Amino acid sequence: MTNDSPSDGSLTDDTHLGRVALRVGSLDRVVPFYRDVVGLAVERERDGSRAVLSAGETPVVVLDEDPDAPERGRREAGLFHLAVRVPDRGALGDVLSRARTRASDAGATLSGASDHLVSEALYFRDPEGNGVEVYRDRPREEWPWTDDRRVSMDTLPLDLGALADDAAGDEVAPAGTDLGHVHLEVTNVPRSQEFYVGALGMRVRDEGYPGAAFVAAGEYHHHVGLNSWNTRSAPVGEGRGIEWFEVVVPDAATLDAVRESLAAAGHEVEAGGFGDGDGTGDAADATDSLVVSDPDGIGVRVVRER
Questions:
Q1: What is the chain's Cα-based Rg?
Q2: What is the mean pLDDT of the chain?
Q3: How many Å apart are CA 122 and CA 181, to the nearest integer?
Q4: CA distances (Å), 4 to each of 18, 87, 149, 257, in order?
Q5: What residue ranges do the domains of the chain occupy?
Q6: Which of 14, 45, 74, 125 shows its CA 20 to 30 Å from the CA of 255?
Q7: Whole-angstrom Cα distance, residue 138 to residue 201?
Q8: Does the 16-304 domain belong in CATH 3.10.180.10?
Q9: Which residues on adjacent β-strands are paired with residue 271?
Q10: Residue 187 contacts residue 77 (beta carbons within 8 Å)
Q11: Cα–chain center distance at 166
Q12: Dihedral, CA atoms, 50, 236, 19, 35, nearest 10 degrees?
């Protein structure tokens, strides 16, 4: 396993994603899907216009309500899907079982199911049309590795009957559930790849899908997917959809290296200070985090592990 030093800007396997934030028109419309189908616990914050969705002690999704936010424009970059990772096949089977009995009442649809060789995944549209993947990883020793230590992913049918048979019977997402990756619709894949790889410090993991690239810290199959399949041509706007997501690095040295790499590549880097998730954290948080926008205006918050 390759582990480059933090000083060269290369993120290692100690890096993972934290939370993803969505701007939604109505919490009452959207929350039941994430609670009743995905199985996340819900905590309302501030004046009731924010919900934090968690598995155990791990926050996964932040929903910010803005009733005046328009629908995402058809030309605008943004979210293809967010991906909630469950720890095992039994937990994924539970999501399928809950979806079959509750998705319709929650205003959501099961839109697909795939075997990606490295993982097994269920795909949904939440009540406001955001793509949501719920998946479980196969053990790394079972992944198809290339000679240069990349991975080879595919999209094959998933046997839903067998998956349902393996359901564990739990009603909520278990401990170990987290945000595994985000998949973005971008205006220019090579430009976005240069940001996430050349400046942020991830690595290309798979380029086998036309019009797409999958990048990650260390040797994970992907933390960020990038695609141009729907020919988006404008940056993300102020409508509903993704606001930001977190990249969690292991220590201060790595955070400093990322800050220096982003600045050297010409990106405007701001101090963090968003310990409570809304940009109003205390002064100490600024030393533990940074904020930058990717080439399409999607917020990337790099935070130190705590």
A1: 18
A2: 93
A3: 14
A4: 22, 27, 14, 12
A5: 16-304
A6: 45
A7: 25
A8: yes
A9: 290
A10: yes
A11: 25
A12: 50
Q: How far apart are CA 94 and CA 36, in angstroms?
A: 11
The one-letter amino acid code at 164 reads A
DSSP string, the chain: -----GGGT---TT-EEEEEEEEES-HHHHHHHIIIII--EEEEETTTTEEEEEETTEEEEEEEE-TTPPPPPTTB-EEEEEEEEESSHHHHHHHHHHHHHHTTTTT-EEEEEEE-SSEEEEEEE-TT--EEEEEEEPPGGGS-B-TTS-B----EE--HHHHHHT----SSPPTT-EEEEEEEE-S-HHHHHIIIIIIT--EEEE--STTEEEEESTT-S-SEEEE-TT---B---SSSEEEEEEEEESSHHHHHHHHHHHHHTT---EE---TTSSS---GGGGGGEEEEE-TTS-EEEEEE--
Give the global pTM: 0.94
Number of residues in the chain = 306
The tokens describing 254, both together, are 């790595």
Alpha carbon distance 296, 292 (integer Å): 11
pLDDT tens digits for 143-168? 999 999 999 999 999 999 999 999 99
